[in-house]
Amino acid sequence: MTSESVPVRFDTKIAVLLRDDLETWQRLNVTAFLVSGLGSALPETIGEPYHDADDTPYLPMFRQPVLVFEGGKEVLRAAHTRALGRGLTRAVFTSDLFATGNDRDNRAAVRAVAAADLDLVGLAVYGPRNAVDKVLKGARMHP
Q: What are phi and psi of 107, to 5 degrees?
């Protein structure tokens, strides 16, 4: 068995937790916004650039899978609390962000609310696999 055929097992996990009452377009939008924060803050999560057979360059992407979960409002609140308590790298998306149209207003909307009162619709976390699994307790894999 060559090293290329051995499955890679990462000691870290990238996970997105979405509130289970979101519309499809909202789920996609929230996921895209949340993971964009992780890649910019954690360069070690990004792999090498891609090239096709014609040597056309493409942007690099995460070096490991992004797992997407869902849960109710209380599952999100509990996961957020656990992520904060464990000091995991995280990104949040609140319901208020659906009404804003730019980064400045997004940041102001989050800044205006205490952590315990955020109306979370999405949370991305990155860290040791075991710790992320504990943060996501009660969530289920997105269908």
A: -60, -40
Q: Where is pLDDT greater, at 40 or 78?
A: 78
CA distance 117 to 142: 25
- If DSSP codes are grouped into helix, strand and coil, which group holds residue 34? helix
Q: Which residues contact 41 (CB under 8 A, 6 or more apart)?
A: 89
pLDDT at 53 over 70: yes
For the stretch 61-104, pLDDT in tens is 999 999 999 999 999 999 999 999 999 999 999 999 999 989 99
Taking only Cα atoms into account, the Rg of the chain, rounded to an integer number of angstroms, comes to 16
Under 8 Å between Cβ of 122 and 7: no
CA 142 to the chain's CA centroid: 13
Q: pTM for the full model?
A: 0.90
Angle formed at CA 120 by CA 37 and CA 25, multiple of 5 degrees: 70
Question: 121: part of which helix (H) or strand (E)?
Answer: strand 120-128
Q: Indicate the residue type of 93.
A: F
